[in-house]
Input
Amino acid sequence: MSSAYGPTDHTNALLEESTMVDLEIHLGDEPGRLATMGETLGAAGVSVEGGGMWVVGDVGVAHVLVVDSEQASAALAAAGIDVVATREVVVQRLDQDVPGQLGMFCRAVADAGVNIEVLYSDHDHRLVVAADDHGAATAVSRRWETARAEEADRDGRRTGAGEGPPAA
Output
């Protein structure tokens, strides 16, 4: 069962703070560059937990979510692949069955004066956000989760981590 703010059948009140980081990687816009990046990370024992890739101009821009950014960056550098940025991320679960969750969460981040620089999903269907102010984005995420838990308590339900709007 779901409410306007998210599913009502989860038991965790808050997500653990993310230990993962986003790597921005620039690749050539040619066949096989993304495969080489993935093979390089795999050979180094680095699991890609989420991400995306697109071409901007003539540059392939990849964002990947990893736990060990130092190991990933070293392996990629050794293969001649450019890691141009490493960013802390907020990992936020939204209820994908409730229309508007993405907009509501992004509005809460914007209303806090925070600019979202990178946004994608991880392999566990959670939103991954890198922002210009990680601390403020994390605070918004915590308020979002707290508001959802409070709504569930008022309604006498148990709920999952991170589904719901931020408290005012």
Summary: The CA atoms of residues 18 and 91 lie 6 Å apart. The longest strand covers residues 21-28. The beta strands are 2-3, 6-7, 21-28, 50-56, 59-66, 82-88, 90-92, 116-121, 127-131. Confidence is low (pLDDT under 50) at residues 1-16, 159-163.
